Amino acid sequence: MPRILVIPGDGIGIEVTEVSVSILKAVGEKNGVEFTLERELLGGCAIDEHGVPLTKETIEKAKQSDAVLLGAVGGPKWENLDHHLKPERGLLELRKQLDTYANLRPAIVYGALADASTLKREVVEGVDIMVVRELTSGIYFGHPRGTERINDLENKAFNTLNYTTSEIERVAKTAFEIARKRKNKVTSIDKSNVLESMVLWRDTVTEIHKREFSDVALEHLYVDNAAMQLIRRPADFDVMLAGNMFGDIISDEAAQLTGSLGMLPSASIGNKGAIYEPVHGSAPDIAGKGIANPIASILSMAMMMRYSFDMDGAAAQVEEAVTKVLDKGCRTSDIYEEGKTRVGTEEMGSLILNEL
Ligand code: IPM
Ligand code: MN
Fold first, then answer.
1. Which of 206, 225, 256 marks a domain boundary?
2. Which residues pair with 217 in a beta bridge?
3. Active-site residue, 48 included
4. pLDDT tens profile 301-349
5. pTM of the predicted protein model
6. Residue ranges lining ligand 1, Cβ < 6 Å
7. 218-234 pLDDT, tens digit each
8. Nearest-CA residue for atom 9 of ligand 1
9. Measured from the CA of 95, which atom of ligand 1 is nearest?
10. For the chain, is the Cβ count within 10 Å smaller at the N or the C terminus?
11. Residues 249 and 279 in one domain
């Protein structure tokens, strides 16, 4: 029986995860699969309960599960804690412990929502991008890191951006393999005109492409240019491959093309563990009001079906149900426009459930 660890986290993470778990159960029933679900705390709620954002027990349970369904972490209550105790540290540690080195973030502009983008309809129409972000190395995890007193007047703070050949190779392979199932094109993003670590990035991607993936189209862009091209000609991109920090930035930019962060799912995969979570955060300003958009979480669950359980059919069922509900004009507040029907978190969930 597939084991799933459910970690709703904080803020709207709790509400949206509740909805996607109910859809997950229905998908299981429909497809004759019984998922075993367990629950754990992460982030602010774990700090309140255990004094740390991520406990050893939770790490263990996550390692023993086939997949983790995560909500969101953080909130103003925990913002002023020491760096190592912040809710975000729990999330980063979980990614590291599960070695989920490839973070997949699809940014799809739904026809029904093309006017919700801040860019013109004709620029964003047809956008279907998969950002593949390296997730467990780079400047987020590099050593040395820290803050030092250097004299009576000044501190110095530093981080290290490093990558090894194998770290680049494995995430590049994931990007090329995914491209083969899509439009067969990879854009690799770096800053090799300035940084040694990014020279290695470009050389390694080029090498693996030549060796194993020469059937896939490959282009390299410097990150500053990529940021510009992404709003200039977004429909030209297929798979965008980037290191941890550039991927963090580019994926938020790609998200905004679609009009709402509330729609975007993600999958973090590696050799064993997998984490599925919305790209959005815990949105403390709307938490507890029942108005959060559950679609990012529901689509993350669909990605789980596809990438962890090889249930492509089930994933497509969920994705189609979401499209149908949007086509019928149902909108949560974040994607609401005049003339459409405004629905809350739970209602959006029930509507999608009915279309399954
Ligand atoms: C994300 C978030 C995280 C990151 C934060 C919350 C640590 O921005 O998942 O993109 O930077 O990876
Ligand atoms: Mn981010």
1. 256
2. 185
3. no
4. 999 999 999 999 999 999 999 999 999 999 999 989 899 999 999 999 9
5. 0.94
6. 88, 91-92, 248
7. 999 999 999 999 999 99
8. 279
9. 12
10. N
11. no
